[in-house]
Amino acid sequence: MKAQSLTIGTLSRLTETKVETIRFYEKSGLLPEPGRTEGNYRAYEVEHLNRLSFIRRARALGFSLDQIRELLRLSDDRFRSCDSVDAITREHLIEVEQKLSDLKALQAELSRMLTQCSCGTVADCRIIDALSPVRNAGPN
User: How far apart are CA 17 and CA 56, in angstroms?
Assistant: First the structure.
Protein backbone atom coordinates (compact mmCIF):
# COMPACT_ATOMS: atom_id res chain seq x y z
CA MET A 1 0.00 0.00 0.00
CA LYS A 2 1.30 3.47 -0.85
CA ALA A 3 2.34 5.68 2.08
CA GLN A 4 -0.55 8.13 1.53
CA SER A 5 -3.14 5.37 1.08
CA LEU A 6 -5.68 4.74 3.83
CA THR A 7 -7.47 1.54 4.70
CA ILE A 8 -11.24 1.61 4.98
CA GLY A 9 -10.85 1.21 8.75
CA THR A 10 -8.59 4.26 8.96
CA LEU A 11 -10.95 6.27 6.76
CA SER A 12 -13.81 5.14 8.99
CA ARG A 13 -12.03 6.29 12.15
CA LEU A 14 -10.86 9.61 10.70
CA THR A 15 -14.35 10.57 9.53
CA GLU A 16 -16.35 8.79 12.25
CA THR A 17 -18.23 6.94 9.52
CA LYS A 18 -19.21 3.29 9.66
CA VAL A 19 -17.53 1.04 7.12
CA GLU A 20 -20.97 0.01 5.80
CA THR A 21 -21.81 3.68 5.22
CA ILE A 22 -18.58 4.24 3.30
CA ARG A 23 -19.42 1.28 1.07
CA PHE A 24 -22.96 2.63 0.63
CA TYR A 25 -21.57 6.00 -0.48
CA GLU A 26 -19.35 4.20 -2.97
CA LYS A 27 -22.25 2.15 -4.37
CA SER A 28 -24.46 5.23 -4.64
CA GLY A 29 -21.77 7.15 -6.52
CA LEU A 30 -21.15 9.81 -3.88
CA LEU A 31 -17.68 8.50 -3.14
CA PRO A 32 -15.53 7.21 -6.01
CA GLU A 33 -14.36 3.64 -5.69
CA PRO A 34 -10.79 3.52 -4.46
CA GLY A 35 -7.91 1.79 -6.11
CA ARG A 36 -6.80 -1.60 -4.86
CA THR A 37 -3.59 -2.83 -3.33
CA GLU A 38 -1.76 -5.88 -4.62
CA GLY A 39 -3.61 -7.80 -1.90
CA ASN A 40 -6.92 -6.45 -3.29
CA TYR A 41 -7.63 -4.19 -0.30
CA ARG A 42 -9.26 -0.82 -0.85
CA ALA A 43 -6.64 1.94 -0.95
CA TYR A 44 -8.22 5.31 -0.15
CA GLU A 45 -6.44 8.57 -0.86
CA VAL A 46 -6.61 12.04 0.70
CA GLU A 47 -9.24 12.96 -1.94
CA HIS A 48 -11.52 10.24 -0.54
CA LEU A 49 -10.98 11.57 2.97
CA ASN A 50 -11.83 15.12 1.87
CA ARG A 51 -14.89 14.05 -0.11
CA LEU A 52 -16.19 11.83 2.69
CA SER A 53 -15.66 14.66 5.19
CA PHE A 54 -17.69 16.94 2.89
CA ILE A 55 -20.48 14.35 2.68
CA ARG A 56 -20.51 13.88 6.46
CA ARG A 57 -20.67 17.63 7.10
CA ALA A 58 -23.46 18.08 4.56
CA ARG A 59 -25.40 15.19 6.12
CA ALA A 60 -24.91 16.74 9.57
CA LEU A 61 -26.49 19.91 8.19
CA GLY A 62 -29.45 17.88 6.95
CA PHE A 63 -28.83 17.96 3.20
CA SER A 64 -30.40 15.02 1.36
CA LEU A 65 -28.25 12.56 -0.55
CA ASP A 66 -29.54 13.99 -3.84
CA GLN A 67 -28.65 17.52 -2.72
CA ILE A 68 -25.20 16.33 -1.66
CA ARG A 69 -24.72 14.55 -4.99
CA GLU A 70 -25.49 17.80 -6.80
CA LEU A 71 -23.28 19.87 -4.49
CA LEU A 72 -20.42 17.47 -5.11
CA ARG A 73 -20.99 17.66 -8.85
CA LEU A 74 -20.96 21.45 -8.68
CA SER A 75 -17.88 21.50 -6.44
CA ASP A 76 -15.93 19.59 -9.08
CA ASP A 77 -16.13 22.66 -11.36
CA ARG A 78 -14.25 25.21 -9.23
CA PHE A 79 -14.66 28.09 -11.72
CA ARG A 80 -18.42 27.78 -12.12
CA SER A 81 -20.77 30.39 -10.67
CA CYS A 82 -22.07 29.37 -7.26
CA ASP A 83 -25.67 30.33 -8.16
CA SER A 84 -26.67 26.65 -8.27
CA VAL A 85 -25.05 26.01 -4.88
CA ASP A 86 -26.97 28.98 -3.49
CA ALA A 87 -30.22 27.63 -4.95
CA ILE A 88 -29.73 24.21 -3.34
CA THR A 89 -28.85 25.82 -0.01
CA ARG A 90 -31.84 28.18 -0.24
CA GLU A 91 -34.14 25.21 -0.94
CA HIS A 92 -32.71 23.37 2.06
CA LEU A 93 -33.09 26.45 4.27
CA ILE A 94 -36.79 26.60 3.36
CA GLU A 95 -37.10 22.92 4.36
CA VAL A 96 -35.33 23.62 7.67
CA GLU A 97 -37.57 26.63 8.37
CA GLN A 98 -40.65 24.46 7.73
CA LYS A 99 -39.33 21.81 10.12
CA LEU A 100 -38.69 24.48 12.75
CA SER A 101 -42.23 25.75 12.32
CA ASP A 102 -43.55 22.20 12.71
CA LEU A 103 -41.40 21.69 15.81
CA LYS A 104 -42.69 24.95 17.35
CA ALA A 105 -46.25 23.77 16.78
CA LEU A 106 -45.34 20.44 18.35
CA GLN A 107 -43.79 22.24 21.31
CA ALA A 108 -46.95 24.29 21.80
CA GLU A 109 -49.16 21.19 21.64
CA LEU A 110 -47.01 19.29 24.16
CA SER A 111 -47.02 22.31 26.48
CA ARG A 112 -50.81 22.56 26.20
CA MET A 113 -51.13 18.86 27.01
CA LEU A 114 -48.89 19.22 30.08
CA THR A 115 -50.83 22.21 31.41
CA GLN A 116 -54.01 20.13 31.26
CA CYS A 117 -52.43 17.34 33.31
CA SER A 118 -53.73 17.16 36.87
CA CYS A 119 -51.14 14.52 37.86
CA GLY A 120 -53.88 12.10 38.90
CA THR A 121 -54.09 8.52 37.68
CA VAL A 122 -53.40 7.24 34.19
CA ALA A 123 -57.09 6.45 33.82
CA ASP A 124 -57.85 10.18 34.11
CA CYS A 125 -54.74 11.40 32.29
CA ARG A 126 -55.49 14.18 29.78
CA ILE A 127 -52.25 13.44 27.91
CA ILE A 128 -53.22 9.80 27.36
CA ASP A 129 -56.67 10.97 26.22
CA ALA A 130 -55.13 13.47 23.79
CA LEU A 131 -52.89 10.77 22.32
CA SER A 132 -55.70 8.21 22.01
CA PRO A 133 -58.26 9.41 19.45
CA VAL A 134 -60.13 6.10 19.75
CA ARG A 135 -60.72 6.83 23.44
CA ASN A 136 -61.97 10.31 22.55
CA ALA A 137 -64.33 9.08 19.83
CA GLY A 138 -66.66 7.31 22.25
CA PRO A 139 -69.49 4.99 21.14
CA ASN A 140 -71.19 5.72 17.83
Answer: 8
